[in-house]
UniProtKB/TrEMBL annotation:
NCBIfam families: AA-adenyl-dom. It comes from the Bacteria. The keyword Glycosyltransferase does not apply. Keywords: Phosphopantetheine, Phosphoprotein. One of its GO terms (molecular function) is phosphopantetheine binding. It comes from Cereibacter changlensis JA139. GO terms for biological process: amino acid activation for nonribosomal peptide biosynthetic process; secondary metabolite biosynthetic process. Residues 637-711 form the Carrier domain. The keyword Transferase does not apply. This is Non-ribosomal peptide synthetase. InterPro entries: AA_adenyl_dom (IPR010071), ACP-like_sf (IPR036736), AMP-bd_C (IPR025110), AMP-bd_C_sf (IPR045851), AMP-binding_CS (IPR020845), AMP-dep_synth/lig_dom (IPR000873), Condensation_dom (IPR001242), PKS_PP-bd (IPR020806).
Amino acid sequence: AALDHQGLTYGTLVRELKIERTLNRLPLTEVQFNLERVADGLAIPGLQIRTHPNPKAAVNFDLFFNMIEGPDGLRLDVDYNADVYDPATVRRWVDHLSTVLRAIGADSAQPLRQLPLVTLADLPCPSATAITPPETQVLHDLVTAQAARTPDAPAVAFGATSLSHAELALRSDALAARLLAALPPGRGRVAVALDRSEALPVALLAVLKAGHAFVPLDPRHPAPRLRQVLETAQVKALILPDAQLPAYAEGLGVLPVAIDGPAAPPAELPEVAPEGPAYVIFTSGSTGAPKGVEVPHRAVVNCLASMAAEPGFGASDRLLAVTTVSFDIAILELFLPLITGGTVEIAATEEVLDGFALVRRLQRGDITVMQATPTLWGMLLEAGLQPVAGLRILAGGEPLPLDLARRLMAGGAELWNLYGPTETTIWSAVNRIRPGDAVISIGHPIANTELQVLSPEGQLLPVGVTGELNIGGAGLARGYFGRDDLTAAAFRDLTLDGATRRLYRTGDRARRLADGTIELLGRGDGQIKLRGFRIELGEIEMALRGVEGVAQAAVDLRAPPGGDKQLVAYVVAAPGAAPAPESLMRALEQRLPNYMVPARYVRLETLPQTLNGKLDRKALQAPEGMDGLLQPRDITPPASPMEERLAGIWAKVLGVEAVSTTETLYSLGADSLTVFRIAARMLDAGLNLEARDLLTHPTIRELAAFAAAREGDGAASSRPSLKSFRHGARREGAFAS
């Protein structure tokens, strides 16, 4: 069509289309590309004539490319509006065009989609973390070497129990000997299903020393999923609190091994190669079946060595471990202190679920490092945490909101944003966040790692262009255990600038910034289009969190039956607040374009989370009048005043009209944040109950009976309410004993 009407001028087109004009903008387009040919062969008798193009005296467009073809080649003049574009950006674009033209000249037959826009040499790439190569690339050998250097230093703490590095080595050696005596020769996989305690690192280390790869299990996960993991990983043995094989493992030929048992004769520990698998950890699969990521020793050693250098961890550091062992970032929490001479303190499950308990522990001042998802950090701030200088905060696993980052740094704490998928071993990028930062990026790659933003065709993309983040280097996993098809789809060999390398496709949208750092832009479902406008949901969510009376917020695109898609906001109100939809809309209209203002609002007591503590966007309920509303359950009504009070609290936090008094928290879909909020509301209501009581008595009926029995025994003592903790009002030493 353009060729059919190539004689139509820009002015005629604007006039015929009757496009509305404004004083500050040209209609239809603000960019023009023009191709000229220099006249050749002009001859005048008696004169020697040479024709030269001259720059434009003035242009009307914000960006004007004028390409001139002459006998000596191509010349490009670029005029630009300096109020809109900066010189470095325009210079980069000229270089990209030059790269494309050179590629066409080299091979004019190649498809357009394969033409490169940029080379690796053109891209600003910040240096990866610099490290001294570890003395060995086998994880347990590093732990053993550290134990020899600092045998008496504390290594692991849990409650009142503490193990020195030497004691950890002895206990793990003994368990490794028992595994070697019980299992047939050869490498394999051994699952570990233990509650959080000092025994957990003992078991993991013993599996490695015995020459196997460990498969970490969270005993709280549903039995069918645990069984599925054991089957998929082809597990040889299962380390348990005792030698009683659980029902989910029956019939699989799995050998039960108690964490403590009769000593086996000392055994010579087998040698393990750096490429040998250290662990197989399972993540959700798109087909509904979990897939096991097989990580070699050299990958986890590289990550830990890099983390020891940056953000930094040494012999004087003490890390509070709060992550479930089924989430791979727990590997850092448990092993980084063991290879550096530091200490890992393992928080009990009850402490992790009770935000107040974690705040109390952090306020003692001896914890120097803690790693958690932004969701958990937000919960701790709500519980009264005021991070201060001396605490190194590691945040990762989901995007770090800028407003949350500023709150975490307000008291002088050191904040690091970490990024990395399981398939590239825990973390692949690191960035120190500063109070003045306007953008939260994932920063630069860790040691021996590369981050590349690629097009769908696998081509390098220039600065500022959105593509898929690909990761390569020493952190790459071996693949998905037993799933060569999935491995081939996710891990691929690509040739960039003539060199072939293995890269993992993260599925994360990203762009490279002018300083070379990488900014994540969400998953494919993190960006939506509405009425032709491209919208980042995170921007709306951040704006919502900035509205008075809003504690947390999420936004999604939903469509009512027979209706058009519309933005729906899910809002968790701040304590004591009840923001109305009208006020929220008015506030957002002052911050955002009208197409980014949600049309519907849903009030929730808590945002849904995945097992790993991330926002579960897919689990956001549909608002009234839309498909997908949860249907009422068969409800056993309250039978006492105490049950009535508890049922009211539970229903409010869970966002339902009523709750059965015989249904457990877990069957109601409660997660750690839900448990925290229920416990907080019970304290607010003057009930002498806390998070650990919820875990022990997970139904309203059981919890009410427990409360009544304790009051009858006179065992009750007053505890502070949530209001006492909020905004840092309560200080250490003021807690009830």
